[in-house]
Amino acid sequence: MFWLILVICLVVLAFSGVLLIGAPYLPTLRKQQKEALDLLSLKPGQLLIELGSGDGRILKEAARRGITAIGYEINPFLVIYSKISCWSVRKLVKTHWRNFWHVSISPADGIYTFLLDRYMPKLDKKIATETTKPLKFVSFSFELPGRKPVKKQNGLILYHFNMSNKKLPEKSLLTGTNQLT
Known about the structure:
- It is built from five helices and nine strands; from the N terminus they run ααβαβαββαβββββ.
- The protein has a single domain (2-163), classed as Rossmann fold, CATH 3.40.50.
- The strands form two sheets. A seven-stranded mixed β-sheet has the order 3-2-1-4-5-7-6, with helices on one face. A two-stranded antiparallel ribbon has the order 8-9.
- By secondary structure, the chain is an alpha/beta fold.
């Protein structure tokens, strides 16, 4: 009985604990997978990074299009499921059990995520400071505050980050140090 309770607690923790740093697991519907990748319009050989990759559905669909895909997921059960699910496309897909707030997204040509509204400003800052080349970003449901979307389609929101709209650090008048605006 003890082991059953322990397993149940671990599963509940794995699926609900992510609310503290991102969003709950909600599988992306097939239609939305295709629409998200169509909005990103990445070409074969380009890199998609999915932040909170869940069961790997987007990663697998990207690989079917010849897109290299990396997923970061904090739920270990979903990472295992994703690795199994994406086995047939493993040459193009990698899933990592990591907190995406602590990894570099700079190599990405495109990023996809479903992230709660309260974390979008932090993600905007992460993308703006880490990208070194033009980047396409699609969010499911939640907008980046202060940024104008390029397109909205069925709950998907497309943004373009490029060097001309990148928020650059400004010197703080109080401390003299660089800070993001």
